[in-house]
Amino acid sequence: MKLICEQGVLSAAVSNVQRAVCTKTTMPALEGILIRAENGKIKLCGYDLEIGITTEINADIESEGAVVVNAKLFVEIVRRLPHGNVTIETDDKYITYITMGEINYQIVGMYPGEFPELPGFDEIDNITIQGSLLKNMIRQTIFATSDDMSKMVYTGALFEFENNVFSIVAIDGIKMALRKETVDYGENSRFIVPKKALNEILKLGSDNEDEQIQIITGQRHAVFKINEYSVFTRLIEGSFIDYKSTIPQNITAETCVVARDLISSVERMSLLTSEKIQSPIRLQFKRDEIRLSCSTTIGKANDVIKAPLKGEEIEIGFGNRHLLEALKNTDSDIIRIQIQNASTAMIITPAEGDSYLFLVVPMLLQRS
Questions:
Q1: Hey, is 207 helix, strand or coil?
Q2: Do 145 and 215 fall into the same domain?
């Protein structure tokens, strides 16, 4: 194999592909990037048996072939080369030579047959979504995915297509995030995408409104095609909770508040808490205001923000981190807060419309 390509293009491509490479494994090939030169292009692939990232870049191919090189070393070498054309060549023992002018590297490569192939699958659905929309929906829900591996089904987000409505739902047991939009796709489909794949989708491509992301799904796998990149992922198997049934119905208190004001106030209360010092942020919903307070072993804090109340006055408490994560992922200037009672989840939605819905489960309050 011998090829010549532009350093900047190659560096960007291998840096992105590297994110799907295993960092700890007994299989050396999984710590590498597969480089395949054919038909005037370089095909690059990183794969950790759960997600894979592939891309193609243009190159001057003098002789076709393939090799697996250690990802970490190869990315660092290419990144530190000056701008210009870089030549990559392998011999019959897969020794890989990387040259640019007077700069010359010789590294040990691996037989490409040791690199696992990305599984093929029969296509069930093929859906195209505006890239900026999909990324916005992922950003507003990924915070509620779980890290508890004993409940694997909730370590990803549910993608649901139903009656031309596309929803992404994430639940971690304390928070739920629901984001939905009307789309031009009339079929019904649902599948669970792992958090790691969601993070890679956010990092690839741009937020250009013209960018489209193609989602191809099978029974157990999916591919997200983002410009010249493809993100291959296993889907999470299992039954996702009937999330609609978890939304409280009999609302007794409702208010609308400036999101930034509430976030700032909760942040002020949070100054008295830490990982070691945990205490709920108390919210008292009064007739024309929300009174916030926090009391810990290091002190007390109080604040008041204006917000007209409909319904009953109520006091409720939350862990500051979970409450802030929900509030900071709202994208509305004014948000609506609805509460059934002090022991059920608080609902956060936009004041106008229903594009998102967040639930935050309260903490038990000790009588003050």
A1: coil
A2: yes
CA–CA gap between residue 85 and residue 324 (Å, rounded): 48
93 and 26 in a common domain: yes
Q: What is the DSSP string of 212-257?
A: EEEEEE-SSEEEEEETTEEEEEEPBPSPPP-GGGGS--S--EEEEE
> 52: number of CA atoms within 13 Å, CB side?
23
Of 244, 261, 289, the residue that ends a domain is 244
259-282 per-position pLDDT tens digit = 999 999 999 999 998 877 778 999
Is residue 367 in some structural domain? no
How far is it, in rounded angstroms, from Cα 190 to Cα 239?
11
Whole-angstrom CA distances from 197 to 47, 51, 202 are: 12, 7, 9
- And the tokens for 222? 């999916």
Please give the pLDDT value at position 368. Answer: 54
> In this structure, how many other beta carbons lie within 10 angstroms of the beta carbon of residue 268?
15
Q: Which domain holds residue 282?
A: 247-360
Question: pTM of this prediction?
Answer: 0.93
**pLDDT for residue 174:** 95
